Every structure is written in structure tokens, then in C-alpha cells.
Amino acid sequence: MKLIFELSRKGRKGYSLPVLDVPEINLEDYLGDYFRQELNFPQVSELDVIRHYTNLSKLNYSVDTNFYPLGSCSMKYNPKICEELSRWEEFASIHPMTPEEFAQGSLEIIYKLKELLKELGGFSEVCLQPAAGAQGELLGLLLIRAYHRDRGKEHKRKILIPDSAHGTNPASAVICGFEVITVKSDANGELDWKDFSEKLDEDTAGLMITNPNTLGIFERKIKDMADALHEKGALLYMDGANFNALVGIAKPGLWGVDVMHFNLHKTFGTPHGGGGPGGGALGVSEKLKPYLPVPQVEFDGERYFLNWENPKSVGKVLAYFGHFGVMLRALAYILIYGQEISNVAKYAVLNARYLRHLLKDQLVDPYKHVPCMHEFVLSASNLAKYDVRAIDVAKALLDYGFYAPTVYFPLIVKEALMIEPTETESIDTLEAFAKALEEIIKCAKENPQKIKSAPEKTPVRRIKEAEANRNPVLRYPFRSS
Ligand SMILES: *Cc1c(COP(=O)(O)O)cnc(C)c1O
């Protein structure tokens, strides 16, 4: 596809300005060095522009166009009614500084979502401020730090994190000033109990664990972990990014989890917005309540109000109250399902197990003796002898119109392909995806070169990803003509 600059024809226009009715000036006299002579804007008609951008938009891959089995991301279809509601003028245009008495409806929305998340997670309180899961982690760890400091336990500076964890977990802990201690996973893909018990000591501030973990495996000893930690005065952080596998069925607060973030953009029907805004609501047990950010929305039986009183608060983590549009979508999503929200978890798990079954002879399943939850991890190591890698399989899938699974994560599985179908996909899609993978693997064995040079049909083919990261070219090279 051509760049808009390449469509330029001298003198072609897509606008007309009204006749000048003020004195004409020479901009260059005013702007001096800021006046850029070399800017050679494209000269195009309105039709050129409309066609160009419409065609560009059609190159976008999205969950509204195709299947998106990106593990750990819960890329499910989001009901459009949630989008519609969040665009209502009444919600979209309210100013965050509107006096409480004129914002009762909006405050009620925030309050109701908070109450429902407390109920679903089994927590004493929920803070809706964090903008994403990773920010929820940061806030959760700040709370843990404040809790220990408040008790004069400054020495509790170690956070235990399993080797299967998402990269944001150790990153958040380090930003928070903690020392990260890695705990091994065992042969079942769960936290290695022996390694955990040996590393848990008086200096441990807490354990950060994902459940189900990033292998899609349920950590059955979660309650024992909570007990062991609490006995040492440490706390349990649960990364709730995989709550899609549990929603409506299990309440982590009842397992002894002290703090957990929900990813509203994974579990609760709001879009992953290309880096934001998202929602990383944080649920906490009674112990951590005194340190939560302000303000919290509360209800006195008659009116909703902002409570700014929390003397031990760690402070704010986002302007105002968090991303209101995301909260509105999440509330609508929960209310639409009502009591049936557990079906989300049931179908997410069922879909993952069925797809895993369909793929069982294609790739290596390193934990095949363990049932999976909402996602599973396979290894492409069986293709190494054809010199085909996980990345090649992922790229070949693009030619079949599927987004690629997450690759090379979790780090403990060689040549990992992490597949999460989500509950919103039909059996037809799952079977079509399995069939495509089957064809790719057959081809990898017979004609590996074809797989290694895929994709053929996408607008751009293989990108030098490492180089693009280090040496991004973000500007069109203007030619002065
Ligand atoms: C997505 C994810 C995160 C980070 O959440 P963001 O909302 O992307 O910041 C953390 N942990 C796990 C396991 C995840 O899948």
C-alpha cells in the first residue's frame, strides 16, 4: 500500500478556506527558526484521504474481525452494548470535578461496581483507581510495604515470585523497592512447595502468585501458601489477570489472598485499548484497607459521597477516580450476566480443554497429565529437527487469518505457544484453528522453508523485531522537491 505522501500531486486539494478578512502576515517572520521549510505536506483530494484511511483501517487485525488466541490476555469479544453505554453523553461528558450532589448517578456506578467486585473476589474493599493490571500490582505492593512499615517490619523486603510469572510481577516488585526471590515450579507446573518453604523466612514481605498460573494450571495449594505466609507475618498477592477462569465460581479472598488485581479489560468485557485506558481494580483484605488510596466512593444510606479520610493512605495512583468509562462497561457486563456470570469461567475452561484435546498430537504438551483451566501452553520443540521454531508456527498462522498465540512465554517452557481461546469462541472457530495448526505442522515437516518464510499474505511480512525496537523509524523521510 502507498503512503499518503506518495499519493501527492502538486496543486490537488481537499479543502477550501474562507476568504481572508484580516490582514495577511508572513508566518516566517513570526516563527523564525521554528518555521520548517522542508515540510512537504501531501497534496491530496478529500477522496484520496478517505480511501487511504479506510483502506488502512481494513488492514487492522482485531477481535472484531478474527480469532485472537493470545494467551494470558483474555482477548474475548466484548459486547457492543457496553461500548454504546459508555458513549452516552450523560456519562461521557460529566466533569470529574462535578460537585457530588450533581454526580450521584456516576458515583453510584462506581460504588456498585466496587461492591460487585468485592462480592466476586471475596474482598473487604476494592479500589478502582489503577489504570491497568501492572499498576494494580504496583499499588498492591505499595500497600504491602505500608503494612509492614506500619508494624516496624522494615526488614521485610523480599517478595517471592514463581519462575512462571508474568514479567510485570518482578518489575512491579523492583519498582517498589523489594528484592525479588524466584521460586521454582514443580513437575505439575505448580509452585514447588519445597523451594517455597525454604525461601520463605522472616524477611519475606509476601508472595506474588498468579492463579490459575500462566501455564493455565490451577495452584491447588493456594490456601496452604496463605497460611504459611501469614504465619511468618507475610502477605499473599494474587495476580488476578486470569480471573476469567474463576469468575462467579471461586473467591480468592476466601483462600486467604490479601490483595489481588482484577484486569477489567480481560475479565470484565472492556477492550484492551492499545495500551490504555484499562482498569486494574484492586481487591484487598481487612489488613490492607487502612492504606488504600483516596478518595473511595461510599454510600451513607441516602447519598453517595467521596471519602477522602484515610490517614495511612499510600496516596493516589491516578488522577481523580480511575477510568470511569471502563468501570461503566465492566458494571454493565457484570449486570448483563447476573447470576450466570459463572458461565464465563465454565465456557472459558471448556473451550481451552477442547482445543487442547484437538491439538494433543500436533505439538508437545509438557504438562499433559495436568488438567488446564482457561489456557494452556504447548511447545514447538518437536519441530526443531525441521529447523522450525515457535515463531515460525505463529507467523504461519497469520496466513490462515488467525492471530498468533503468545510465544516464548512462560519462560520455563521451551519454544512455548500459549493459547487462550476464551469463552466467546464457537466450536467452529476452535476446530478451524486446530485444522490450520495441523496443516502448518504437516507443512513444517514436509516443506519447512515455506513455514519459515511465512507470512505471505499480510501487508508486511516478517519484521526485524529487535531492530525495530532499538532503532524505530517513526517519521516519513521528507524529500524536498
Ligand atoms: C496481562 C497480565 C498482567 C498485566 O496486566 P496489564 O493490564 O496488561 O498491565 C499481569 N499478569 C498477568 C498474568 C497478565 O496476563
From TrEMBL:
GO molecular function annotation: glycine binding; glycine dehydrogenase (decarboxylating) activity; pyridoxal phosphate binding
Domain Glycine dehydrogenase C-terminal span(s) in chain numbering: 345-446
Superkingdom assignment: Bacteria
Span of domain Glycine cleavage system P-protein N-terminal: 40-293
Cofactors demanded by this protein: pyridoxal 5'-phosphate
Modified residues (N6-(pyridoxal phosphate)lysine): 266
Gene Ontology CC annotations of this record: cytosol; glycine cleavage complex
InterPro entries named in the record: GcvPB, GDC-P_C, GDC-P_N, GDC_P, PyrdxlP-dep_Trfase, PyrdxlP-dep_Trfase_major, PyrdxlP-dep_Trfase_small
Keywords tagged on the record: Oxidoreductase, Pyridoxal phosphate
GO biological process, one term: glycine decarboxylation via glycine cleavage system
Family note: Belongs to the GcvP family. C-terminal subunit subfamily.
Protein task: The glycine cleavage system catalyzes the degradation of glycine. The P protein binds the alpha-amino group of glycine through its pyridoxal phosphate cofactor; CO(2) is released and the remaining methylamine moiety is then transferred to the lipoamide cofactor of the H protein.
Official protein name in the record: Probable glycine dehydrogenase (decarboxylating) subunit 2
Species this protein is from: Hydrogenobacter hydrogenophilus
Gene for this chain: gcvPB
